[in-house]
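To the structural biology subgroup,

Please find below the input and predicted structure for Activator of Hsp90 ATPase 1 family protein, which we are adding to the shared reference set this quarter. The sequence is reproduced verbatim from the submission form. If anyone notices a discrepancy with their own records, reply to this email rather than editing the shared folder directly, so we keep one authoritative version.
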Amino acid sequence: MTDLRLEREYPISAKKLFDLVTMPEHLSQWFGTEAVLIQKIEMDLTKTGPWICHMIGRDSGDRFKLSGQVTHVDAPKSVGFTWAWHDEQDQRGDESHVVFTVSGTPTGARLEVKHLDLSNREAAERHLAGWASTLAGLERLAK
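Predicted structure (tokenized):
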């Protein structure tokens, strides 16, 4: 298993950042890479329970689906959820775990993203690129 970790700082309060990364109305505005359009997202990271996201490739038209369970919420500090891509037959693949941790800084707030238990180094590299692109959307929203 392989883990990855990213950190980003934002010029907003830790509470505002936690709201942006957990509340459904905000998630729909930034979640997903720049290469996809969100077709449907049922994701509420303010409470435990299931979540699901359907995406379409902007250029390719390929369809993607991922789902999981919100495993913990410790507002306004951290939230964790499982993560698995679905295949063409709608079967869930390998499950991994994501944890968002928010903390205050002297100039705003920091988000740490840990993506744990990825199946191999190649999967970790793909997810690292995906998270970098996804967090660019959060950066635009957090200005």
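Summary notes: The helical segments are 14-22, 24-30, 121-141. The first strand starts at residue 2 and ends at 10.

Regards,
Lab coordination
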